[in-house]
Amino acid sequence: MSFNMKTNFSLYCALLVALMGAPALGISVEIAWMGSVRAGYPTVFICSSSCFSNCIYTWNFEDRTINGSTLTWTPDGRDDTVELKCTVLDRKTGESISTTTVLDIIKNPVSVQTSPSNTVPSVNQSLSLVCKGAASGDPQGPSELIWFKDGAKLTLHENMQLLQNNFTLHFNPLLPSNVGFYHCEAFLPTLQTRVLSSGYLLSVDPWHVTISGPDSVFVGKMSQFTCLTSCKLNVECTVRWQYRGGFPTGTYFSVHANQLKWTPSIPGTFQNFTCIAENAAAGRSAEATKMVEVKGIPISGSEVMKLGGLFSLILIVELLTIFDF
After folding, report:
1. pLDDT class for 119, splitting at 50, 70, 90?
2. 8 A C-beta contact, residue 103 and residue 77
3. Residue 249: what are its φ and ψ, rounded to 5°?
4. 280 domain residue, yes or no
5. Chain segment 266-291, per-residue pLDDT in tens
6. For residues 119 and 132, is the Cβ–Cβ distance under 8 A?
7. Structural contact between residues 249 and 268, judged by C-beta atoms closer than 8 angstroms
8. Of 169, 258, 273, 255, nearest to 214 (Cα)?
9. Region 15-21: what's the mean pLDDT?
10. SS3 at position 288
11. Are 308 and 231 within 8 A, CB to CB?
12. Residue 318: pLDDT above 60?
């Protein structure tokens, strides 16, 4: 009985090691960290491997490359998820291996917003940005508050001033040169940490959205629609589609970013396509809707002959099926 227990235990350990990814040959790598990853708060990531000497560790994320087995990173709140990759190179053997993990970023309660919140930035008009949530993020309140524009400490110009103990950044008037990505940073005494807010993309250009494509489509024929935006896709805005009144019915349907392809199947119907361009950080969005009519296929003489041959083929196949030829 004891022999069987030892044997089973050995098999269990071997299976556990295999499932954990320990290789029989070569090197392995994994990424570890403590707690949740929160925007505005630093998190320490550790890349560990079975490579013990002469090893080079490299981190890749958000188009950045950093060397070392330990990474301390503070998410800026722009993204909800971030891919974090660690690569280990064994300089002795030349072998390298990588692992990638997808981080879910918890939104920061501290954020930059317009005040009032429904304000639309306009050139030559006054505008106020507030660092919201910094005062309530710590019982003692922030000891200092710093503003950043495009990742650098903000330099005040003649049309700008800080109000309410630096909690409000006021523009009077707002100029095109003030366009950029703004953060506020506060030091919270109780937590003994600096908190970087989620950002706000300040833009003054109005967005225009249109949908290109036919107003009428035909059953069985593929048509393409493109959402055209004045904002730069995947930089200033992202695009999503809505189908108000019902999802498109057809034999083919695909959406890739701002392009939509559809092959309808029911004539005499109407389909609404709505394209929405938005930027969550800036609190901005614009949309356009296109109504498309689905018509039957216009049949010419040659098409009648083709369809007639097709129907004959279908009939022959059905007869063969019925009579089990």
Report:
1. confident
2. no
3. -100, 130
4. yes
5. 999 999 999 999 987 777 888 999 99
6. no
7. no
8. 273
9. 32
10. strand
11. no
12. no
Rg (CA), the chain: 30
Taken as a whole, the chain contains a residue count of: 325
pLDDT of 236 above 50: yes
Question: pLDDT at residue 240 above 80?
Answer: yes
**Residue numbers of the domain that contains 118:** 111-202
Are 69 and 57 in contact by the 8 Å Cβ rule? The answer is yes
Q: State mean pLDDT over 140-165.
A: 85
Q: Are 189 and 278 within one domain?
A: no
- CATH number for the domain including 138? 2.60.40.10
β 284-295/216-218 pair status: parallel
Taken in order 62, 147, 110, 279, is the CA torsion positive or negative? Answer: negative
Where residue 230 falls (left for φ over 0; alpha for ψ -120 to 50; beta otherwise) is alpha
Average pLDDT over all residues of the chain: 79
Residue 102 and residue 19 share a domain: yes
